[in-house]
Amino acid sequence: MKQLGLYCSRCSAKLPFRYQDMKCSCGGTLLVDYDLERLSKTFTKEALQTRYPSMWRYNELLPVSNPDCIITLGEGWTPLVRLQNWELKLPIKQLWIKREEQNPTGSFKSRGFSVAVSLLKEAGATKAAVPSNGNAAGALAAYASHAGIKASVFIPLDCPPLIVEECPLYGADTFLVDGLIHDAAAIIEAGKQEQGWVNVGTLKEPGRVEGKKTMGLELAEQLGWTFPDVIIYPTGGGSGIIGMWKAYHELKALGFVDGPMPRFVCVQEEGCQPIVDGMLPQAAMDLAGGASRPSPTGMRVPQPPDLPLILSIVKQSGGTALALSKSQIADATRTLGTQGISSSPEGSATWAGLIELCDNGWLRATDSVVLFNTSHAMKYAQLESICSVPRIRSYADYKALGY
Amino acid sequence: MKQLGLYCSRCSAKLPFRYQDMKCSCGGTLLVDYDLERLSKTFTKEALQTRYPSMWRYNELLPVSNPDCIITLGEGWTPLVRLQNWELKLPIKQLWIKREEQNPTGSFKSRGFSVAVSLLKEAGATKAAVPSNGNAAGALAAYASHAGIKASVFIPLDCPPLIVEECPLYGADTFLVDGLIHDAAAIIEAGKQEQGWVNVGTLKEPGRVEGKKTMGLELAEQLGWTFPDVIIYPTGGGSGIIGMWKAYHELKALGFVDGPMPRFVCVQEEGCQPIVDGMLPQAAMDLAGGASRPSPTGMRVPQPPDLPLILSIVKQSGGTALALSKSQIADATRTLGTQGISSSPEGSATWAGLIELCDNGWLRATDSVVLFNTSHAMKYAQLESICSVPRIRSYADYKALGY
């Protein structure tokens, strides 16, 4: 049995472990607390060397206590590919891309839901629901069905039809919501008690941040237990940034890595850029944003559940945030394509961000930079919808369908 | 520099290594010959333990001599997932699925083209062409563009539009052919000399079989240096079966694994089943096949380039071949979906084959069985074509486009 607790990322309060309701009374987000001093005696770099290449190799730093409850579909230990041709063309030292699309559900969301669903299994939960721009819904659907847990997923209706379609394939009750991701979240909150759902939305439970944390752990191990100088990451709800930041603090506490933390760069699409706006001084912020209609990608999260936490991480790390235009993102998809990489709009935005930060001199000649490609290009094809998924606006509409 | 040669899989003739034209004068297929006795001194199980989880960990058993020519996008070391729930329901001992869709191009084809394109790079070739039902075209396109080699790909026009569309994304000259895969191959043969293409079609060059071989190497290593009892594999041109068979002979020669070879089961779709027909006694064969119209999948190869070699492997291994119906394959996609696995029709056919071999008693209660999921379900969505790829019937049509 692991000795787990929770701590508040805002007020530092300590609480006993629980698998849902991650809001502290101060309004901050609760994160999982490990006894790192005790762990450091047996959890060593040497012990890792011969472990199987899965994100569960970091088992000691993951919150599932009963190994029989681990729900795995082959997630994590995705390749880190070096783009040497471009290192010669750009004013940086090293360039890497982390191929998160090679996860079991075709996106980085597999990681968080492997842990979240394992925790549900351990807790004996039988029903879970998530609001999602698509890939989180597919990941919950896949892991929940593997675990024998009923999943209900709520997706804005303009999201990519192929990603939507995967959810009923995995056996989830799937609904298209006439609204954005927070409208989908509101439906779940409205029905949570009546339906018996555990809400596994961003920062609502501890597993997704812990699962995303493994991206940071892997990256450090794949780079020979060093940190890159800069991580460019497509940011929506922010659990990836929070998770990787947490990973690096834990690795430092364990004595695995020395030296400065990476600078975190959040990329978003113009028109839905709360993190970019949040980094600006107040006067500038009032003028920014809102001009263009953002695309239905994982970056389109107008109201991240803990914006202050994301902003504090980006600022503390010496990072920055950038909003890219649709056409910059589309150009990036083509550029990555001709390097043999099929990148989602989110992954492409990291490339577009890289180019902009090279052009404006923010990146340094000594920087090693890591991009995250979070899904495949083809899953985003905007084709006529092929799915007969019901469309709803409210929890009342949901009920009217007979649930 | 590696001491490589070639040997004929039919007449056993030995030849110097070359990177194209794999047909022996006897009509057999030439395969790569390694000095296994010399290798066994340094290539050990222990040496592998701390190597990076990529298919290139088996570098000594791959034919690329110059490490600077290796074209890698993060291929291989895909997860092997155990399906324990189904072990309880089916009359077998162990059930595993190898998740080949988690390769960089979303299919098992990444492996073969990583090696084939590396060999092209090493040889200084600048243009390559392939006939393909889709996934091989995408893989050539991706690896060639990463290597700075020009790819031309020829795909039957009813193949899945999303897979087709990936090829121009990767920068390949892409053509839809009014015909089947051998018609596409004929166009390449007709234009090969004039266009300067290396034909990297199935068994035309040594890299693809060697790359596919790594599926067998990995499987043995992932199972603790043992062989499974049965491998169920979706078979079109047969390079995967040939590659895995070769892998297991090499592992036995190296002393890595003892015991009997796995029984190889080839699955195909009804209506295009040359391997299934080839396994029948002649009288039965004349009556078989041709009744239904086969789907445009990787299994639709009416004329495998070396059918006798595939048949001899299946027979020697004590295996079998099965043709599944469209509806059996569609049912299997749903069954795998509700286990959290998005499977291509080819991957689904392995599940359908499993069920049939359980029902008819061919599988034994002591058998450990491995299925191969070769690609994602969603890439096969039969939507209105979104690509403006030119359609051709002949090399003359190709020329008329101005090439």
Automatic annotation (TrEMBL), chains A, B:
<dbReference type="InterPro" id="IPR001926">
    <property type="entry name" value="TrpB-like_PALP"/>
</dbReference>
<dbReference type="InterPro" id="IPR036052">
    <property type="entry name" value="TrpB-like_PALP_sf"/>
</dbReference>
<feature type="domain" description="Tryptophan synthase beta chain-like PALP">
    <location>
        <begin position="71"/>
        <end position="374"/>
    </location>
</feature>
<keyword id="KW-0663">Pyridoxal phosphate</keyword>
<dbReference type="GO" id="GO:0009097">
    <property type="term" value="P:isoleucine biosynthetic process"/>
</dbReference>
<dbReference type="Pfam" id="PF00291">
    <property type="entry name" value="PALP"/>
</dbReference>
<dbReference type="GO" id="GO:0004795">
    <property type="term" value="F:threonine synthase activity"/>
</dbReference>
<protein>
    <submittedName>
        <fullName>Threonine synthase</fullName>
        <ecNumber>4.2.3.1</ecNumber>
    </submittedName>
</protein>
<dbReference type="GO" id="GO:0003941">
    <property type="term" value="F:L-serine ammonia-lyase activity"/>
</dbReference>
<dbReference type="GO" id="GO:0006565">
    <property type="term" value="P:L-serine catabolic process"/>
</dbReference>
<dbReference type="GO" id="GO:0006567">
    <property type="term" value="P:L-threonine catabolic process"/>
</dbReference>
<dbReference type="InterPro" id="IPR050147">
    <property type="entry name" value="Ser/Thr_Dehydratase"/>
</dbReference>
<keyword id="KW-0456">Lyase</keyword>
<dbReference type="GO" id="GO:0004794">
    <property type="term" value="F:threonine deaminase activity"/>
</dbReference>
